[in-house]
Request: fold
Amino acid sequence: MNKKQTPPAHDAAKQGPSPQAGRGFGNPSMLPRERLTAFGPQALRMDELLAILLKTGTHGLNVLDLANRIIDAYPTPKDLSRAMPSDLMQFPGLGHVKAVELAAAIELGKRIADSSLTELKIRLDSPERIVNQIRIRKFDDDTESFYVVPLSKKLSLSGPITEMSRGTLDASIVHPRDVFRTALKWSASSIIVAHNHPSGDPSPSGDDICVTENIVNAGRIMEIPVLDHIIVGDPDPGADDADRRSGFVSMRRKNRRLFA
Reply:
């Protein structure tokens, strides 16, 4: 007699809605992977995220039921982050490989969270410190990326450094409305904006100056000061120009009139 196969995570919803169905975004009958694709990971319940990582359940226990059994033992993300692979292997259907994969995913999330908390404490009171934060983000070598840096009253991050747009910088792509929506979202007392020049030359263009003026003027109206616009290129130690040597331009240093 053929054994009944346990459905994988992407088929789990076919077993009927879980006891927690109805909360979150979208139709509760949507598969967890479909909901993640449509609404992002933040829309999924903890059991659904765990089910995607687990992939399959075990005989007589579908993957969402297995996820909820783990959550019963570790009710919060902090509790789950303390579970060792040997602890996870106590659950039916969780062998060594699956337990190690789950522990690795949990540890990765914990390190990302720890990194974010560290960033929030850094005082960003100089263009050099801003540039260090911007450069650790991966710029596309062929595309300009525009970032908003939301700051607290103490000039530390009030929220994540947020990429607003990609493409050649001009007023039609970077709209002050979108910039300050991000500032308001993170309760910023002030902001700094930044973008890269794929050519490596950080010298500001006419469009860079126009975008800076538009955003600074909008900041005055919104009462959220724009402290600087940083243009990031590539350092060139042999260049005659100081900006080319450093690989970045602070528009505030370059043209204080724009920020007066």
Residues 1-25 have pLDDT under 50 and may be disordered. The chain has eleven helices and five strands. Residues 9 and 55 are 5 Å apart (CA to CA).
